[in-house]
Amino acid sequence: MDAVRLGVEDFLADLAHQRVASPHTVAAYRRDLAALAGVAGDRPLAGLDHALLRRALMQLHGKGLAARSLARTLSAWRAYYRWLARRGAIAADPSDGLRAPKQPRTLPKALAVDQVTALLDASPDDELETRDKAMFELFYSSGLRLSELATLDVDGIDFASGTVTVTGKRSKTRTVPVGTKATAALREWLKERGSTALAEELALFVSRRGTRLAVRSIERRLGRWATKQGLGLHVHPHMLRHSFASHLLQSSGDLRAVQEMLGHSNIATTQIYTHLDFQHLAKVYDAAHPRARKK
Which of 15, 84, 138, 239 is most buried, taking the most CB atoms under 10 A from its CB? Predict the structure, then answer.
């Protein structure tokens, strides 16, 4: 292995072990650096200059890479060159001053309360649907990420305190409340789980084979469930997390509490839900205010 590739692998190893980045993040950074290596050709990454990095970014943009993807790619490049600079491997950071195209601001999609009710009030027809109902109730009740729910073990649920403890990004652990409907659905699933799960399996949600349910399987089951309930739109797990945050903020107005329950390290990430809240208020205004009604 040549020195440049070894440098990239050292960086990725440091990213995984020292910064506790997720395997998904490490894999994404590996792809982004491979894309840069493809543009660089025979030139070592450590020897690239600002102009070449800028040209590489423009080439990716010209190939149709979305602004969000370009921003993530540039973030990986910056992280790598800053890592090199801290170790004295380069005299100057060639990514300094580079800017990705501006991303259009998109608000997360959230279900209306009556849509969530239609989705979650349906009764399961078999033991797998009993599991599914428990998963979806927990998603909406506690605002979990898909990865958090997939990695949740049985001992993560504390029925005595009415809480669930999950491990989120950067291996950070948080404990959030579980609502009564989700608690009831979980108890029903645990009655069935013993006949499905393998003896040594710790996962709360297991497949028909008795092993931990995969992320993709959870996504498919939610899509199937939403179709069965006649919602008429594609529902994905993150939509339930968005709905949790939006509805909680509408009811409480407590941004800090929502931030803590979502596991956001920066409140700016949570503030996007204030825009959703404003949309809700604007609809109420348009419908109710005498001077807002259309003639």
Answer: 138
Burial class from Cβ neighbours inside 10 Å (0-12, 13-18, 19+) for residue 134 reads buried
- Which CATH code fits 113-237? 1.10.443.10
The pair of three-digit structure tokens given for residue 154, joined into one six-digit string: 């049985």
What is the token pair recorded at 269? 């990430």
Which CATH architecture is the domain 3-86 placed in?
Answer: Orthogonal Bundle (1.10)
The C-alpha atoms of residue 245 and residue 270 are separated, in whole angstroms, by 8
Sign (positive or negative) of CA dihedral 250, 255, 260, 262: positive
What SS3 class is residue 141?
helix
Q: What does the alpha-carbon distance between residue 90 and residue 48 come to, in Å, rounded to a whole number?
A: 10
Same fold, 3-86 and 113-237: no
Spans of all domains in the chain: 3-86, 113-237
Per-residue pLDDT averaged across 259-277, rounded?
65
| pTM, 2 dp | 0.60
Q: What is the pLDDT of residues 153-169, one digit of tens each?
A: 999 999 999 999 988 77
| pLDDT band, residue 295 (cuts 50/70/90) | very low
Q: Check: CB of residue 258 under 8 Å from CB of residue 248.
A: yes
With contact defined as beta carbons under 8 Å apart, do 156 and 144 qualify? Answer: no
Catalytic residue numbers, as ranges: 145, 169, 238, 241, 264, 273
